[in-house]
Amino acid sequence: MGLSASGGRRSPWRIALKTIIRNARVLTMDAADTEYPRATVHVEDGVITAVVPDAVGIAAAGVSAPAPDVREIEASGHLLMPGLVNAHFHSSVNDLKGSLDSLPLEIFMLYESPSDGAAVEPRAAYVRTMLGALEMLKTGVTAVLDDAFFVPAPSLELIDAVMQAYEDCGIRAVLALDQPNVPELDKLPYLRDLLPPALRAKAAAAPPMDAAGLLACYQHLIEHWHDRDNGRLRAAVSCSAPQRVTREYFRSLDDLSRQYGLPFYIHILETKLQRVLGEQCFGGRSLIRYVYDEGFLSERLNIIHGVWLDERDMDLIAQAGCVIAHNPISNLRLGSGIMPFQKLRSRGIPICLGSDESIADDAVNMWSVAKLTGLIHNISAPDYQLWPKAGDVLDCLIRGGSRAMRAPRPVGQVAVGHQADLVLIDLDTLAFTPLNDLRRQLVYCENGSSVRMTMVAGKVVYEHGAVAGVDEAALRGEARELAVRQRSTSDAAQDVAREWLPYYREMYLRAAARDVGMSRWAFEGPAIGQR
Ligand SMILES: [Zn+2]
To answer: How far is Cα 522 from Cα 482, in angstroms, rounded to an integer?
Structure first.
């Protein structure tokens, strides 16, 4: 890729008011799935202003000749496509990749967010947020929907640290605060009977921050960060999961979401235990049915996981117009099960893709997520005509992700009027040699190493192997130092988790053995010892 900059605009973002990307192969991802063997794309003030196929010619297309302040990028031999969207992510554990063996969610969470966990410093939150953001930008992810949680509680300084990292690195980010406001005992089945009195008293304690405190944090997030940098940084809301919040707080978040048009992140039916919880503690209803009955099932919801949905749940989701965030690597890492992909797609429910978190995926690589999406559902049905095609996976990755953002301006296509969130992919790499089928090789061959340039809102934020304005080597060094300092705290937290483990294991086994009238696991028969 020849990168020549004219005009003297070499700010940290290497901003040119206008950028022209010449001679790229272009995958537009528009509704008609248009692809140009060769085209020139004009970007001005963050927006795509012209897409000129080779045969048309600049003059015929009514596009004026370049001015001195225009940066030109010669992109022959490269593919230009919309940036990838990581539609479900928790930046909070970006520094914990590889920390745990595979465990079921409910046991895994004992170690991930221990009840006695120490607060993190804002600088550490900044550094860990940046680690994930760099990994994403370098592999062509232009937007992330971050459902950040803070142990024991969020603060205005921590919110600022996370958003400052996103502002500094240049990625498009939509941040929510994933914080429960009910005691642990109310979030899980069987636990009330299983725990000994001392632990039961601890589990019955209210979380450190109540609804009023959490809403004050949202007020800060929205006032200080929402719609910043021409809408690149935005707020969302999150209740974490329906069973983790009170109805009143749920309603307040729904009101905020409606008032500002914000996406609403909500984990629903990730695991079989959560299906059992609905039967036991929500009047025999699935958690989707509960959310519907409360009047909260809306097109603003990004339903995360949706693995243990039944047919009626899926009908309700389709009627309401929700998006489903599919995280197949996390679902396998935590043994949660296989989401009913084809049943959701056949109902017209939009699906977006996410990496979930670095302690349950271990990488922040949306190419891996896309590849697994293209593979895992092949074992859900013998009829191969139902198996996802590469085009289906790209549809989820780009169009589904763009839909999940609820962005006020169009994004997700190489098309006039869309936000210039673009990636250039080198086609002279082993992944694309020989080039047999572009879409299949994007889904099944590419791993992110062919990405040569990432542009967000018209700014080149990654090229020549580096993210603009970020000293990555210094950041990695700081992250290593922070990890050493945090190790003693996390070792202590692991000891605490071990104390709870026998009771959580029993709870998990009881739920696993229960007949819920369906299975999303890839095996038949009783789970672990019929009870
Ligand atoms: Zn999640």
So the answer is: 40
**Which amino acid, 428?**
D
- Angle between the 472-513 and 122-138 helix axes, to the nearest 10 degrees? 90
Distance CA 396, CA 204 (A): 40
**Tokens 């520094």 found at:** 95
Tokens of residue 320, six digits: 């309401």
Encode pLDDT of 320-371 as tens digits.
Answer: 999 999 999 999 999 999 999 999 999 999 999 999 998 887 889 999 999 9
Question: 3-class DSSP state for residue 451?
Answer: strand
Q: How far is the CA of 117 from the centre of ligand 1 (A)?
A: 19
- 249 CA distance to ligand 1 middle (Å): 19
**What does the alpha-carbon distance between residue 250 and residue 252 come to, in Å, rounded to a whole number?**
6
**Distance from the alpha carbon of residue 451 to the mean position of ligand 1, in angstroms:** 26
Q: How far is the CA of 94 from the centre of ligand 1 (A)?
A: 13
> For residue 331, how far is its CA from the centre of ligand 1 (angstroms)?
10
Q: Do 83 and 118 form a contact (C-beta atoms < 8 A)?
A: no
| Model pTM score | 0.94
pLDDT tens digits for range 371-429: 999 999 999 989 999 999 999 999 999 999 999 999 999 999 999 999 999 999 999 99
Query: How far apart are the CA of 72 and the centre of ligand 1, in A?
Result: 40
DSSP state of 356: E
For 197, other C-beta atoms within 10 Å of its C-beta total 7
Task: For residues 303 and 339, give the distance between their C-alpha atoms in angstroms, rounded to a whole number.
Answer: 12
Please say if the pLDDT value at position 298 is more than 60. Answer: yes
User: What's the pLDDT score for residue 303?
Assistant: 98
Cα–Cα distance measured from residue 398 to residue 180, given in angstroms and rounded to the nearest whole number: 30
State the Cα–Cα distance between residues 17 and 436, nearest whole angstrom. Answer: 37
Q: 493: Cβ–Cβ under 8 A, 6 or more apart, which residues?
A: 111, 114, 116, 117, 118
Instruction: Return the higher-pLDDT residue of 87 and 8.
Output: 87
